[in-house]
Structure of Dihydropyrimidinase:
Amino acid sequence: MSTIIRGGTVVGPYGSAVTDLRIDGEQITALGAITETPGDRLIDAGGCLVLPGGIDTHTHLDLATQGTTTVDDFNTGTRAAVLGGTTLVMDFATAQKGETLAQGLANWQAKASGKSWCDYAFHMAMLEWPAGRADEMAAIARQGVTSFKMYMAYRPAMMVEDDEIFQALQATRSFGGTIGFHAENGRLIDELTRERVASGQTHAYYHQHTHPVEVEREAISRLAAISELAGNVPCYVVHLSSRDGLTEVLRANRRGVPLRAETCPQYLLLDASRYGMANGDDLDEVSGYVISPPLREVADQDVLWQAVSDGSVQFIGTDHCAFNVHGQKDAGGDDFRSIPNGAPGIQLRMELLYTYGVEPGRISLERYVELNATNAARYFGVHPRKGILAPGSDADVVIYDPRGTRTVHQTDLDENVDYTPYEGWRISGRVRDVFVRGSAAVLDGVVVGDQSGQFIACGPSDGAIR
Ligand code: URP
Ligand code: ZN
Ligand code: ZN
Ligand code: ZN
């Protein structure tokens, strides 16, 4: 028995056409006008878009960090993800200090296995650079984790030094991997924090002023120089937030440094007015937006929209790092130093990007598909298995019905967290049906699948994507 998705607008990175798509087992087996045979399951996609399943390049599920633990785990987080059309999450498996990378990876495999409603892959976050780590990276790459992560901020818990970055980048060359960087200057953040605290400016409002664009800009330019010194090693900036940061990425690209960039819906849609006033607004209102890098200005959003549209930024991850406002964000009172950094967003990525990107004409449908899935699949070495609707690819398919609108309410979301940064926002259309490797995961907006998501091994990175 085949599943035939009939009469939708099938969108790929190179164009779209109204046609049919056939699924047999876990794979797509045909595209084009398809004649059904008795017993086939027919899914009417008339008036809908048929898209490759989304790849969220940046999630923090079940992560112990900043003195607490993120509230979405692989069960609740991937369930929300799949409802929003994401069929592959790329989570940050983290080797805590003192652990080997193999131990960190085994811990993450255990957290995800048997729990995930969609497929999952890992970036391996490295919080330190002990002797022998380069060999460990090569060994982890053989286990299907070819993308790593380092933090240039968050002292002393996570930050690494320039020489360590240099050695890590050199190490990725042996297996064709990549490293994503949280690119902010951690020492400057600490100094700016010390100054604010010394003058009694500790309200959540001041978080943004301890992470100004200069600290992002400086870190990106330093990263580009280190990559260059290491022989132009592919690497990317995670959660790029600012015009100044983008300028540094493009400057590096012009020199031939293969530096790529991910941004997030929050940097495209939300701005620093969310932090309220300097006299300290209601902590419950403000703390949900305490993230790093912080929200920027409307002018930065305009530049980032242009960058996702013209290919200067290649991926959109959510940086889903969910903490409750009540009990986690507010646990230490109104002092930005005690508010865990992070915000939720795993469920709405594709719908927000459709509503505020495609519908107003900021990005084409083809670009939407590239940003949602194809670029990440190529860059992280899972293409053409993932990220494209083509015969032989995994049948990770989203049917998006662009008709109708709704208003976002946290109470309607399946994220396991007590707020959404998008409360009251309008969404156009909806993710109607989702297939993960050929199995229906969501039908008519309702979860019908199970927790049979699989670990997806990544291959060498295609650093050439633009
Ligand atoms: O504030 C943020 N972004 N928290 C999540 C961890 C990170 O820096 O990506
Ligand atoms: Zn980060
Ligand atoms: Zn993150
Ligand atoms: Zn509260």
Residues 284, 325-326, 330 surround zinc ion (ligand 4) (CB under 6 Å). The chain has one domain: 53-379. The domain at 53-379 is CATH 3.20.20.140 (TIM Barrel).
